[in-house]
Amino acid sequence: MFAAHADPVRLRHVASLPRPGGNITGLSMMFTEIVEKQLEILTETVPHAPRLGVLFAPITPSHAPALQAIETASQKLGVAVHKVPVRTAEDFEGAFTMMAQERVGGFLALGSPLITSQRALLAELGLKHRLPGMFANEDIVEAGGLMSYAPDLRDLTRRAATYIDKILKGVKPAGLPVEQATKYRLVINLKPAEALGLTVPPSILARADKVIE
Fold first, then answer.
1. Where are the beta strands (DSSP E) in 38-120?
2. CA distance 29 to 88
3. CB-based contact 111:145 (threshold 8 Å)
4. Statement: the pTM of the whole predicted model exceeds 0.70
5. How far apart are CA 94 and CA 84, in angstroms?
6. How many domains does the structure of the chain reveal?
7. Per the domain annotation, does 173 fall within a domain?
8. 205: in domain
9. How many Cβ atoms are within 10 Å of 209's Cβ, its own excluded?
10. 3-state DSSP percent of the chain in helix, strand and coil, to 5
11. pLDDT in tens, 1-24
12. Which of 60, 125, 152, 194 could lock onto 183 through a cystine, CB 3.0 to 4.6 A?
């Protein structure tokens, strides 16, 4: 059973959300759909940026379909994207240097264990290269990143407990539909915004679930 799967259908771990089949089911954070919303919020926050960077980890399976979704969404939003891969912690400095050279106006860091583990470094490099960032984990915002938009993991974990209870009582996973995340959190840190000379639009602040001042 999974509590926060990135994209179980596109990664072929289940046949479909309503009928997963096989012996696995649970809850999905709908990662591919989330990145489209993250890109949209970022473009609203830095509306005059003609190009945005996208940090991704090639070893993370969910990043391939996410990048395709970002490419499609970027065309609708009228912004170019520059995709920058990172494979180890040592790659981040060069990745930010590359984004600065490409004159991106901000960046989206796709959620992955590697990227989340370097939250302090990401916040530091964003300020160093004067690049506002959108993240998939609010811990990075707490560490000094600009903003995050992601599912409420506490809610997903709580809901996962009901699945565990049903399975322990004998219900087959194949008969339990995969549920999607229903609660999302937008978190904004105004400290890096001030350091970057960025004014977060009131329309974005009004939608935030948490604002760090």
1. 51-56, 80-85, 107-109
2. 25
3. no
4. yes
5. 10
6. 1
7. no
8. yes
9. 13
10. 45, 20, 35
11. 787 777 777 778 888 888 888 888
12. 152
In the three-class reduction of DSSP (H, G, I as helix; E, B as strand; rest coil), residue 152 is classed as coil
Identify the CATH number of the domain in which residue 86 sits. 3.40.50.2300
Structure tokens at 168: 């322990």
Q: Which residue has the tokens 């399976």?
A: 61
Handedness of CA 165, 166, 169, 172 (dihedral sign): negative
pLDDT band at 172 (very low <50, low <70, confident <90, very high): confident
CB atoms within 10 A of CB 186: 21
Amino acid residing at 16:
S
Q: Which residue has the higher pLDDT, 28 or 141?
A: 141
Residue 4 lies in a domain: no
**What does the DSSP 8-state code read for residue 105?**
S
205 pLDDT band, cuts 50/70/90, is: very high
Confirm if 60 and 51 have CB atoms less than 8 A apart: no
Tokens 């609010």 sit on residue: 138
Q: What is the domain range of residue 132? A: 31-151+184-212
Among left, alpha and beta (phi > 0; psi -120 to 50; other), residue 14 is: beta
What is the per-residue pLDDT across 71-130, written as a single tens digit (0 to 9) for each?
999 999 999 999 999 999 999 999 999 999 999 999 999 999 999 999 999 999 999 999
CB 192 within 8 A of CB 126: yes
Quick count: other Cβ atoms within 10 Å of Cβ 207?
13
